[in-house]
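Review this today:
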Amino acid sequence: MLTPVDKGTDGGLLRISADKVGRLMDLIGELSLSVAATVHAPELEGLELPNFEAASHRLSMIMRDVQDAASELRLVEVEEVFKRLRRMIREMERETGKQIEMVSKGADTLIDKLVADRLYEPLLHVLRNSADHGLETTDGRIAAGKSPAGRITLGALQQGNEVRITVEDDGRGLSYDRILAKAQERGLFAPGDKPAPDDLWPVIFQPGFSTASEVSNLSGRGVGMDVLNTALTTLRGRIGISSEAGVGTTVSLHIPLTLSFLDCVILRHGPRLFALPIDMVSEILRPQASSITRISASGAAEVLRQRGETIPVIRLDRPDGSVEPADGILIVATTGSGLMAIAVDEVIDRQQVVMKPLLGRLAELRASWGLALLNNGDVATVLDCERLVRKGAA
């Protein structure tokens, strides 16, 4: 016998295990593919079915609503992660001998449970760096005219189909000179280079990169920010960083709201299909030959000049740039390193797709998050623009 829920005591909420919700999501994904295969069955071509198009469109819309509703079941407040991090602040105070005040904003922002479970470790690395390297000692803060206690602010905000999580401290800020010296020592910049701060800060995410003169229990090993970068790549997220000397540093994590279903633009290049998350698409254009310039004698690199900006062009099949520069279509995508343009032959459609991750050795497939199962049963490679722009499609 089922016991009715007492709405007066718990608001009508039911406790359902994450495994059951995950199973439901998998079944809905399979149902979505079955519906798409039925609606687009080749056997229907040529048949006169006057009401079929309207009925299939309605079925597809209902299926999309079911996907959205199922995705919402797995959403949890980011406060769950913030609470765990708040407890770690006390330990960081003991380790560093500093006074640390933690403030949270937007803790009721919703995020996929799978994302929340993987978010704790990356955020913990950012907090440790803020506490150890960012915040000054109590005496140092008083001498700088600041309050004795350093402040770290955790914030969360939903922006479209992604959640933006920020870790902001009011410490000393990143040291441009020390980071540049270390980057030049490692060959990341040539001696004498003076990159803009926004171009320099991303080097701190390089494996083993650290400017600390000694290792502490919290940081200094050069692995924390590298772990953060790897974790964000796995979550299909990206990192932004800004800093001002004497004012503080802000690290921004941009993460998809859900990992289950993706709104994508479907692309064709040669015989292969690709899917690009639509929230990364900045512009789609057919370029003029004069707007693309080859910047090396061998034609190994090309750039698109668009409204005063210089945007690198990435070829999915021929990184040597041996094809005609103005052939096809360019998809201008937004990445953590700036804009990039992907050359393709055709933009086919916009679809909400079910993504399947690549496992085993396939997980190293070049610049891919996984495979998208399309409405007609075809399979497309989901492009990871962050890796694509770093490797230049190599």
